[in-house]
């Protein structure tokens, strides 16, 4: 994200945050220089000293590894540290500091979470007529890993089943407020036979557009940062549309999905020009965020790209968690006896 003005973004003696590996550390900018003397538009590299580290760790780093020392970025650094600590506890067999007896959709944000306290995973959603359905792999493998998404990953990325299970999960920070909503969502759908309203008054597209508009105001116009944001938002919307019917539904919601999918595909009346992201709400988007670590882990993204994607998704989920009344306050609706009977009969 080179400065469009040809000037360094960080100044000498400025305090900042700097990535070292997967974590952000407080650092001080000691010096800077043009990355390529023949092309000043290529940006700068910065010599940094990590706070509390020996001078032998001082290093020249590209601008992409630095972040301004803002409250938001300090929160990001703290959450990345907590996330890393949780991974280490999990590897050592020690219990995490936050746990829940319930296991709703993605209550633990790793591939090893036994998603499916109810049955989202136990019976793979039947697709609407006219779509091709591959065999789904469901259940828990010998390592305790949930593997219901194998076919989806294989279709998306060409990975085979053994490779899917073998690859490590990528951890993504989820604010506690959103975790709580995921628990409530699971209970309402699987225990109370309720459905989130569809079409939603606050659809995924509305949230993504408003988030993008807000976040673009925090970034330089036409900068690499702004371009990355636009790509991330477009990518989340595309992932949502492609994965909703495959991996984001509980069994009880399938009938609702088929009816809405049929209406969207027909494209008549109020559904003309709409996608699933235009009619489904953030209740289902949360489930995608939970699934993203598994999906990311099975792409060919390099470590730097994964770190940047995690950072962008963290900002997005944090922004959402502070606006629950706007995007996640929709009342779930009782499905009705006819709907329940159709679900039971497999209609």
TrEMBL record:
A single BP term in Gene Ontology: chromatin remodeling
Protein name: Chromatin modification-related protein EAF3
GO cellular component, one term: NuA4 histone acetyltransferase complex
Pfam families in UniProt: MRG, MSL3_chromo-like
Recorded family membership: Belongs to the MRG family.
Alphabetic keyword roster: Chromatin regulator, DNA damage, DNA repair, Nucleus, Transcription, Transcription regulation
Region of interest (Disordered), residue spans: 78-138
Biased composition (Basic and acidic residues): 78-88
Assembly information from the UniProt record: Component of the NuA4 histone acetyltransferase complex.
PROSITE patterns, alphabetized: MRG
Originating organism: Meristemomyces frigidus
């Amino acid at each position: 994200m080179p400065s469009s003005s040809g000037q360094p973004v960080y100044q000498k003696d400025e305090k900042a945050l700097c990535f070292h590996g997967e974590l952000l550390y407080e650092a001080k900018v000691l010096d800077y220089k043009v990355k390529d003397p023949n092309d000043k538009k290529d940006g700068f590299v910065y010599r940094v000293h990590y706070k509390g580290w020996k001078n032998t760790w001082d290093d020249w780093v590209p601008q992409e590894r630095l972040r301004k020392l803002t409250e938001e970025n300090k929160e990001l650094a703290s959450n990345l540290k907590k996330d890393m600590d949780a991974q280490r506890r999990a590897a050592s067999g020690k219990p995490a500091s936050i746990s829940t007896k319930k296991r709703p959709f993605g209550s633990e944000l790793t591939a090893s979470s036994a998603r499916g306290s109810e049955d989202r995973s136990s019976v793979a959603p039947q697709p609407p007529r006219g779509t091709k359905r591959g065999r789904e792999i469901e259940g828990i493998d010998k390592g305790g890993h949930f593997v219901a998404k194998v076919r989806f990953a294989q279709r998306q990325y060409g990975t085979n089943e053994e490779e899917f299970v073998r690859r490590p999960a990528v951890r993504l920070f989820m604010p506690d407020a959103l975790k709580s909503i995921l628990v409530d969502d699971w209970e309402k759908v699987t225990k109370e036979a309720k459905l989130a309203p569809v079409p939603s008054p606050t659809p995924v597209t509305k949230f993504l557009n408003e988030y993008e508009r807000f976040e673009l105001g925090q970034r330089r116009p036409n900068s690499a940062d702004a371009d990355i944001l636009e790509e991330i938002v477009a990518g989340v919307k595309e992932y949502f549309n492609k994965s909703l019917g495959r991996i984001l539904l509980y069994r009880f919601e399938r009938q609702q999905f088929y009816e809405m999918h049929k209406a969207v595909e027909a494209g008549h009346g109020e559904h003309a020009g709409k996608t699933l992201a235009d009619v489904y709400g953030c209740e289902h988007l949360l489930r995608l965020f939970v699934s993203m670590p598994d999906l990311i882990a099975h792409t060919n993204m390099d470590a730097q790209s994964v770190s940047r994607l995690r950072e962008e998704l963290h900002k997005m989920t944090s922004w959402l968690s502070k606006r629950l009344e706007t995007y996640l306050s929709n009342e779930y609706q009782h499905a009705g006896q006819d709907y329940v009977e159709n679900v039971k009969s497999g209609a």
